[in-house]
Amino acid sequence: MTRSLVTLRCAMPSDASRLAELWAEVLRRGDHEEQAADLLSIIERAAGATDERVVVAEYDGEVAGAVHLCVTTMTPLNLEPAVLAVSPHVFPDFRRHGVGRALMDSAVSFAEDLGIGHVATAAASGSRDANRFMARLSLGPQAVLRVATTHAVRSKLTAQRPSAQRAGGRQLTQVLAARRSMRKNQASPVGDAQG
């Protein structure tokens, strides 16, 4: 029987800086200190909650990966409860050592402890390895989450409006009615002068 070198524990405030390195790609933009401060807040909030956890995986005593677990619903419209495993990440040096499997096992155990029948997660669309790993664990695609800046979406929505709407927001029928009215008003004084 082989002894696993992977151990799991709840995150501690002292982990914030190292987790900021692990999750740098998925955290809000900012310098390392701001990201670590965000994570410290998340770790402290999770420590006092029954429906949230930040789980750290250690490999032979070193932080190797982590996952944020929270109880939510399948969607805002489907109120079936689910445990969402947010950003199960493993440092590159510790991949293929069972760390990711241990993190996802912690999500399943958390769901089982709470009597929740579903586990959900997300993998970056461009991460072939992560998506294959999740598929091997029987996690299939449920939806595609698409994200863009508010400004970018507003620009595209504006560009795709019909041209009459882009020009002052008036409908074509309103524009045509205004033109007819202007022509009628222009024609009236001339007719009155002759008669």
Automatic annotation (TrEMBL):
<dbReference type="Pfam" id="PF00583">
    <property type="entry name" value="Acetyltransf_1"/>
</dbReference>
<keyword id="KW-0808">Transferase</keyword>
<feature type="domain" description="N-acetyltransferase">
    <location>
        <begin position="6"/>
        <end position="160"/>
    </location>
</feature>
<keyword id="KW-0012">Acyltransferase</keyword>
<dbReference type="InterPro" id="IPR016181">
    <property type="entry name" value="Acyl_CoA_acyltransferase"/>
</dbReference>
<protein>
    <recommendedName>
        <fullName>N-acetyltransferase domain-containing protein</fullName>
    </recommendedName>
</protein>
<dbReference type="InterPro" id="IPR050832">
    <property type="entry name" value="Bact_Acetyltransf"/>
</dbReference>
<dbReference type="InterPro" id="IPR000182">
    <property type="entry name" value="GNAT_dom"/>
</dbReference>
